[in-house]
Design a protein that fits this description.
heterodimer; A: about 55 residues; mainly alpha; 2 helices; B: about 550 residues
Chain lengths: ~55, ~550
């Protein structure tokens, strides 16, 4: 197998490969989306709870 | 700065150059110089992606902005995790499989040479100037605050960065970015700890949060729909999304980073790292600004943070007015400080806070008005508006930080500037050599020849950026014009890449006209409407895709 084929195989492996036994790329992407939604929610709660501009 | 500060500051420079030299030994050939032979791990690339985006202005300008307006700027960063996912799914696989050196090279593979050359040329034009500003902005601030010579500051930053970038290429750049990013993390923690430590002993975390809340400094989400309001959740999510997608997906200074990965998986992981780490880092930087706001309830802040502007007004015909503002400022600050201490005592005793809260709010407003009046005086004397916001954090550092810590923090700011500049230089050099020199002038050149040419291009761009930085004060309108072209260009460029990835029928003619139509539409929108600049990229990208698709379909039919 020449070097070019090895690089291509390595790339395909990279795409199909699971990150570990339970984590796939799709699950990781969903985690990022959930993380973003939680972040926005948290910042909204901070905005409301820490607003002391009025009594 | 004390001797200890200078020792720490000098150690930073020596460490960066030595580290870059050590890393540069691994470079062989032009692929090694521009892409580290595609063998870098995700952790290093991820930190470099972060360091490239975080310039000195991030530390200087963002903290000042938070001091004046609170946390609202964070909304621009909120879509970045989602952008990273889209990059992983759509952009990175195309770039990675195409085995390209520059993002624009992909456009020739997908469309034609004219689209590649036009986009690469516009990138060189806007980024070449921007590289100068990356040096100029912190150099001006540091020279005023520290009393350093502006030219020497620019030259030291420029020479050291050119040296290690020229020597070591992308390998040295990415690994020094790692070092510089770690320094920035340390700097953020040190600044937060130092600010907490500088507060009166009776002030606890809850008090800090409460005082900030009186002026809504923790307000991070604004749900208003007004498109002329610059920072809202919607302008952040929509405009910030397109801005980040254009920057991380189409700007060579970022694309080049994830092309150096040893595999597609490593490329993606570097971006996912940023998806999780970038927003918390930005929150921490903005929190420094809010903590400064709270800190200055107990220590009197300068009326104008830029000492050069203060001197200018004091020696002008407005000196008397300024002295009166200073006297009012002193008096109002004392009243606010007393009210704040009384509020804290009432808070600790469980008493009603309302009257103290109202008083503090009024004094906050009065101090803000006095500051605005002072800025107006500066504007009257100088003829241009005051950019005092950039001096808030450096002024605090110089006035309040102990010996040693000051040297570290100044090194952190210089590191932030250099970690952005080095990435700009490798990106400019790679676009020059790969998209023009090798493409049109020396297609058969040997790897050794291209390596030499690449080092020469890095040197030339470094000298150009230093020249822009040295003369930026006199180039005001030219720089503004180039920045404007850059802002018109970014969204349209994204439109071309989206056209390439998503529209099967798209062709070179469509992409070319889509790019021009996108730029014109942003130009038109900026002239005729007051919408937030964050929406410019949305307009440019959308018009680019629509016009590009229509022209492509019509040319196919013919």
């Amino acid at each position: 197998m020449n070097n070019k084929h090895r690089i291509q195989d390595r790339d395909l492996e990279g795409e199909k490969e699971k990150l570990n036994s339970s984590l796939t790329w799709n699950r990781l992407y969903v985690l990022v989306v959930i993380y973003t939604v939680l972040l926005i929610g948290l910042l909204y709660v901070v905005t409301i709870l820490l607003d002391h501009s009025s009594s | 700065m004390s001797t200890l500060d200078w020792v720490i500051f000098s150690f930073y420079f020596v460490a960066v150059v030595a580290f870059a030299y050590w890393q540069s030994r691994k470079n062989v050939g032009v692929e090694g110089y521009f892409l580290a032979n595609r063998r870098l791990p995700w952790g290093a690339i991820g930190l470099s992606v972060m360091a490239t985006q975080a310039s000195a202005i991030t530390f200087i300008g963002t903290t000042g902005q938070a001091y004046e307006n609170g946390m609202e700027f964070i909304q621009v960063y909120l879509p970045q995790p989602l952008v990273m996912v889209l990059l992983c799914v759509l952009f990175v696989p195309f770039f990675y499989r195409a085995k390209i050196f520059t993002a624009y090279e992909y456009l020739e593979k997908r469309f034609d040479a004219k689209t590649r050359s036009l986009t690469s040329f516009l990138f060189l034009l806007s980024r070449g100037m921007a590289a100068g500003i990356v040096m100029y902005a912190p150099a001006v601030v540091l020279s005023v605050i520290m009393g350093w010579d502006e030219t020497a500051t620019i030259l030291i930053m420029g020479v050291v960065t050119i040296l290690y970038t020229m020597m070591g290429g992308i390998t040295a750049v990415i690994w020094t970015d790692v070092l510089q990013m770690l320094m920035m993390f340390i700097g953020i923690v040190v600044a937060l700890v130092a600010l907490f430590g500088a507060l009166p002993p009776e002030v606890d975390m809850g008090d800090v949060v409460y005082i900030g809340g009186i002026q809504q400094m923790w307000k991070s989400i604004d749900l208003s729909w007004d498109p002329t309001n610059t920072y809202t959740l919607w302008s952040g999510l929509i405009g910030g999304f397109f801005l980040a997608l254009a920057y991380f997906g189409c700007d060579q200074s970022q694309v080049q980073r994830y092309l150096t990965a040893s595999s597609l998986k490593q490329s993606r992981l570097s971006l996912i790292f940023n998806a999780f780490a970038k927003v918390p880092m930005q929150i921490a930087i903005l929190a420094i600004g809010v903590l400064l706001f709270v800190f200055y309830h107990f220590e009197r802040p300068p009326l104008i943070f830029n000492p050069a502007e203060t001197t200018l007004v004091e020696n002008s015909s407005h000196a008397q007015e300024f002295a009166e503002l200073e006297a009012k400022h002193q008096k109002t600050h004392n009243l606010r400080k007393n009210a704040t201490l009384s509020l804290l005592q009432a808070r600790h005793n469980g008493e009603n806070l309302e009257s103290w809260r109202q008083q503090i709010s009024q004094y906050d407003q009065q101090l803000s008005n006095l500051r605005n009046e002072s800025k107006q005086l500066v504007q009257n004397v100088r003829g241009t508006s005051s950019n005092d916001v950039n001096y808030v954090f450096p002024s605090y550092l110089v006035t309040y930080l102990p010996s040693g810590v000051l040297g570290l923090m100044i090194a952190v700011m210089i590191a932030a500037a250099m970690s952005s500049l080095d990435s700009e230089l490798t990106a400019l050099s790679s676009a020059t050599i790969v998209d023009f020199y090798r493409r049109y002038l020396q297609p058969e050149a040997s790897s050794k020849h291209l390596l030499m040419a690449s080092r020469g291009a890095t040197l030339c761009w470094g000298l150009f950026a230093s020249g822009v930085a040295l003369y930026a004060g006199q180039l005001g309108s030219l720089i503004e014009a180039v920045n404007r072209v850059g802002s018109y260009f970014y969204g349209s460029l994204l439109g071309v890449f989206l056209l390439a990835f998503l529209v099967k029928q798209a062709n070179g003619t469509g992409a070319f006209w889509g790019l021009l139509a996108g730029m014109l539409s942003v130009f038109f929108v900026s002239l005729t409407t007051d919408i937030s600049y964050l929406y410019y990229n949305v307009v440019g990208a959308m018009v680019g895709v629509v016009v590009g698709t229509l022209v492509s379909l019509s040319t196919v039919k013919r």
